[in-house]
Every structure is written in structure tokens, then in C-alpha cells.
Amino acid sequence: MTVKVLVPTALQKFTSDRATIECDGNSIAELLDALEATCPGVKARLCDESGQLRRFLNFYVNDEDIRFLDGTNTQLKDGDQVSIVPAVAGG
Question: What stretches pass through the bilayer (predicted)?
Fold first, then answer.
């Protein structure tokens, strides 16, 4: 099963400057492992020391925020698009 991952500019140094990566995974958790296998070092930027997604990153599956789905257990299907969006703050 192939899922398209949209990578923010700040993380593209781990993806050989690619804005889009295709990976396999039945859930967000599996997708994170697949991303790490393809792009070593990226998972440490996405997850904290306990393995939880970092608070300043938002993940969307087909425009749906995974916080309102099933978090990292959110199921994926062939052709889904996962967007990694850094939180924006300021004033």
C-alpha cells in the first residue's frame, strides 16, 4: 500500500530535498517507521524521546487532523495523502 507524504521544507534535508515521499504503512505509526527507514533521522524530528508525536507538528490524512481521528493509530489506505504541517505561532 502506498501513501503519499507531504514533507515541510524544514524536514526536507532528511528527504534529499524532496517535498513528497511515497511510503508504505497501514497506520500513522507504521508510516513513521517507514519514513525513518527511507529517510534516517527524520523520526527523531517528528517524535519526542518517548515516541509520541511532537506537539508543534500536525499530521493530516486527506485533510483530516489525526488528533480528531485515532492519533498514530489512524488507519491508512492505498492512495491516502499524509501532510506534516509545522504549527505556526507568533504575534
Answer: none
**Span 2-51, pLDDT tens digits:** 999 999 999 999 999 999 999 999 999 999 999 999 999 999 999 999 98
CATH number at residue 58: 3.10.20.30
Is 91 part of a structural domain of the chain?
no
Domain with 20, as residue range(s), is 2-86
pTM for the whole structure: 0.90
Is residue 38 within 8 Å of 30, Cβ to Cβ? no
